[in-house]
Amino acid sequence: MTIAESTRILAFDTSMGRPGAALVEVKAGKPRIIAVSHCVTTAKQPHGLRAEIVEAWAVSFIAAHVARGFDAIVREDFVGRTSKQSHPVYSAWGACDRALNKFGLNFTAPAISQSSVKKAVAGNGKAEKPELAEAVRKMTGYTGEFAVDDESDAAGVALAYAVQAGLIMEEEAE
Length: 174
Hints:
The chain is of the alpha+beta class. Helices cover 45% and strands 17% of the residues. A hairpin with a 2-residue loop joins strand 2 (20-27) and strand 3 (30-38).
C-alpha cells in the first residue's frame, strides 16, 4: 500500500449486551472515524432473541457503509473463563458473522486482544475505558460523541489493526 491510498476498516467490539461497531478510514497515515454505532439487549431477553437483535443491528450498520467497501474487517478477541461467560459473546460473534455473510463478507484479520488494543492505541495494555476513548480521540481528531464506551472500544480495535498493519505508526498512537 502506498501512503496516498486509503484503507477502510470495519471493527466490532462484540458482546451480547452492548456491542459496538466503528468504521475508520486511514488515508496518508492519518486515521479518521467515519461512523460508530452500538445496540443494546437485556439479560431478561432469551439468548436467541438477543443474538437476532445483534445480527439485525450489524446488518443495518454494514448496509449503511458497504457501498464503498471495506479493506479490513476485524473484531476484538475474547477468551472466557466459563461457558456461561463465553456463550453470550460467542453468540454475538456468530450474529456478526451471519450479518457479514449476508453481504458476502467475512472477518479478514485475526481478532485482537483487549490488551493489544489498549497497548497499540493508548500505550498501556491496562488502560481504562476513558483512557482508551481519549487516545482514540487524539489519534483520529474525532470530536463527535461516543454514546457508550463500546463505540470508542470498536474504534480502538480498528486503530489497533491499523497500527499492526503498519498503516499508522505506533508512536502516532501514543
